[in-house]
Design goal:
The complex is a heterodimer of chains A (about 150) and B (about 200).
Chain A: E1 9-14, E2 24-29, E3 40-47, E4 49-51, E5 63-65, H1 111-148
Antiparallel strand pairs in A: 4-5
Chain B: H1 2-19, H2 21-24, H3 27-30, E1 41-54, E2 89-95, E3 98-109, E4 116-126, E5 143-148, E6 157-159, E7 166-173, E8 175-176, E9 180-184, H4 186-201
Parallel strand pairs in B: 1-6
Antiparallel strand pairs in B: 1-3, 2-3, 4-9, 5-7, 8-9
Classes of the chains: A alpha+beta (about 150), B alpha+beta (about 200).
Chain lengths: ~150, ~200
């Protein structure tokens, strides 16, 4: 088992070398302590981005993406101790840099990639038709010239 | 005859332009606009549980072998403050080359915020300097935050029972400012994310 999703605990412990003999003691205000300045935490985050792009009719629906950001060091296995506490009273921190596993999508050729080639073929056909008409007109004019001459 | 050739060339250009072939040749013309990246936001982190324990064993966290379980009596957590310190205060202490007090905090973000990517987090811990709070020579104090790997009971004040386990391989020292210690929570954010992933896979 791992740490539950809503358990975000830290412990404040001395960081003094063992040969330091001079004592010290630090008191902090608790939640219910009437302090002018209580313990204050600040979380910096980037909200989730919802990207809506104009797609052809058979395109995939709009996607929601979460940019990833590098975070602090992680020691693999460091949080694998047994945890069985009730969940915390408030909701959890936003997931930092979680892996995004995308569902495999059915392969298809979109209209965006197919249309230019279809248009090119149509254009060539149109050109051939136009050329044929022009040649026919040209011959007609030539025959008229010959007849007039 | 020359006039017909000019007419043919103009028609060819017009058809190509009208069918979009010229546009298809340019990759930039079909590119979608880049999604706007939202600006970073800031929200509050709340303390949802807090506790502190009195310790009588030897602090091994400063030794090369790292933290080990501190031998402690089997006294259960006491719901009331048995100490000489003011109620609703948290303590970290060092005396006689041993750890004498350790504080536990559990954090959660504000309810109003939705999902997103965490960029960083900090904690500011003001020092209570009044005499009755027990603070002594806090300028010489060296405190570090370690990851808590066991649950702890909210509201425990000065219990002498075995404190919940911690893992100081994920830690960060507190920086002393003006009457307050500042803590960068970045290493813990990564560890918590790892815990989420490992929990989800089980």
């Amino acid at each position: 088992m791992g740490v539950r999703k809503k358990d975000y605990g830290i412990a404040l412990t001395p960081f003094t070398s063992s040969d330091a003999t001079s004592p010290w003691h630090v008191a902090f205000p608790g939640r219910n302590f009437a302090a002018r300045t209580p313990i204050a935490g600040t979380l910096h985050y980037r909200p989730t981005v919802t990207t809506t792009t104009k797609q052809p009719t058979n395109a995939a629906p709009p996607t929601t993406s979460t940019p990833r950001a590098p975070l602090g060091t992680v020691s693999p296995g460091a949080t694998n101790s047994v945890i069985d506490t009730p969940a915390a009273t408030t909701n959890a921190l936003p997931r930092p840099a979680a892996p995004i596993i995308s569902k495999p999508q059915a392969a298809h050729v979109s209209t965006a990639t197919k249309t230019p080639w279809v248009k090119l073929v149509l254009a060539l056909l149109g050109l051939a038709l136009l050329g044929a008409i022009l040649i026919a007109f040209g011959r007609g004019f030539s025959l008229q010239d010959e007849a007039l001459s | 005859m020359h006039g017909r050739r000019v007419f043919l060339a103009v028609s060819l250009t017009g058809i190509l332009a009208g069918t979009g072939v010229a546009a298809a040749a340019s990759p930039a013309a079909n590119a979608h606009p880049a999604p706007a990246v939202p600006a970073p936001a800031v929200t509050a982190l709340h303390i949802t549980a807090e506790a502190w324990y009195q310790l009588t064993g030897v602090n091994t966290c400063s030794l090369p072998t790292g933290c080990t379980d501190v031998p402690a009596p089997t006294t259960p957590d006491l719901p009331v403050n048995p100490t000489v310190y003011q109620a609703d205060t948290l303590h970290v202490g060092w005396a006689g080359a041993v750890e004498t007090a350790r504080t536990y905090l559990k954090l959660a973000r504000a309810k109003t915020t939705t999902g997103g990517t965490v960029l960083g987090a900090t904690l500011k811990l003001p020092v209570l300097t009044a005499a009755q709070t027990g603070t002594l020579l806090y300028q010489s104090a060296g405190i570090k935050a370690c990851l808590v790997t066991q649950p702890f009971t909210d509201g425990v004040e000065g219990a002498t029972s075995a404190p919940p386990a911690i893992d100081c391989s994920v830690s960060n020292p507190l920086e002393l400012g003006t009457d307050a210690f500042n803590l960068d929570l970045a290493p813990f954010l990564g560890a918590w994310a790892y815990a989420r992933r490992t929990t989800a896979l089980r």
